[in-house]
Write a structure and sequence with these properties.
There is one protein chain. By secondary structure, the protein is of the alpha+beta class. About 50% of the residues lie in helices and about 10% in strands. It is built from 20 helices and eight strands. A four-stranded mixed β-sheet has the order 6-5-7-8. The protein has a two-stranded antiparallel sheet with strand order 1-2. Strands 3-4 form a two-stranded antiparallel sheet. A hairpin with a 3-residue loop joins strand 3 and strand 4. Helix 1 packs across helix 8 and helix 2 runs parallel beside helix 18. The relative contact order is 0.14.
Length: about 450
Amino acid sequence: MDQTTRRLAAYVSALKYENLGPATIAAARNRFIDSIGCAFGGYRSDAAEVARKVAMAASGVSAASLLGSGASTSMEMAAFANSVMIRYLDFNDTYISIGAGHPSDMLGAVIAVAEARQVSGRDFLVAMVAAYEIFIELADRIPIRSRGWDQGVYVVLGSAAAAGKLLGLDENTLGEALSIAITANIPTRQTRSGELAMWKGCATAAAARAGVFAALLAQAGMTGPTAAFEGRHGVWEQVTGPFEPGPMGGGGRPFAVERAAIKFFPSEYHSQAPLWSILKMRRGIVLDQIAAINLQTYHLTWSEIGSEPEKWAPKTRETADHSLPFLIAAALRDGEITSESFSERNFRDPQLLALMARIRISENQDFTQRFPGALITEIEIVMQDGRRMVERAEHPRGHAQNPMTDADVDGKFRLLCRGVAGDEQAGRMLAAFRNLENTGNFAEAFATTRV
């Protein structure tokens, strides 16, 4: 295998629970809890219903189960369906660098293999940390968005790494899994452009499923391309350009899972700081007296959620939670952004549409140059009587430099579980998950999610 594949496989193969310190274990535990809460929040979505329906038609010798229903299926389909639930609300954790995405999109894969293999909670945490390490290392090295590729590039490799770790693959076999995973699964970014469809919340779940499949193929003896990254027509040449994985977590270096940001609002990550600002500014403001709202931000926010015409006239939930004008207008009117903000009646509401028409979003070159070290947004509200109010935000609540507490995470978890699981069951799940590193069988902890 080429050197890039070898370095990634060697790192994952060598990682042990003893390498993880208390801060890493706490970070992984919180992001797992947050992801399960997000899955319950997305449980009744159309996409989750479709995913469960397809998954229930599949079976496997080493069976895994679906969150909530507990229905048995194959590891691959459990990885897909559970990742759809985790991802669908766009409320799960995020990592922002020159590349970006949602590391917890991989957790459906980690959960499925850990449950089917009945590994310990510690083994689950090691595999989860390894997956995050691969994802975030690649996001720090590869700006795939600008090349038109989607974040599933990171997800499929992290998922294959975690699945291979849990399946007990040696370094060489793990390398085969990574090679198969990346060569066969390069998704385009059309998933997140223009008017967004249900697939927006499912594309990385497909990558998680593909990662599990690649690991299972390698375990059974399938070999992959010998130069998946560096060879002719390989990933370097076709997709990413050359890159070299740097030193990853361990040996005194912090682990990447500690840098993943937890979301406070159920909306695209680059809206988090603007939403904090607008909620600070809304007190005493009469909406009909607003003359203009001028928002300056860094390039990625502008291009991702503030530039396309569809973002000023969302027709789907998927577009609305990626529409900065819609989010700003809804937060100004309602004083909050929740999952209920994305109802169809809001898409047609004359007051919201009129307010959105007064919003102007532009790129500030200085803010762009300071990204990703700072996520700066400045909002100016101009009133009809000439008054001007300005607010600036950098690191929203949940960012690694402004972290949510355990109590914050537990509160979000309980709120998201409420529509499917009662508060008593939420408490049982939290008790099991907060003790994950001392659990002898991960499947027993995951069984608490059955309703």
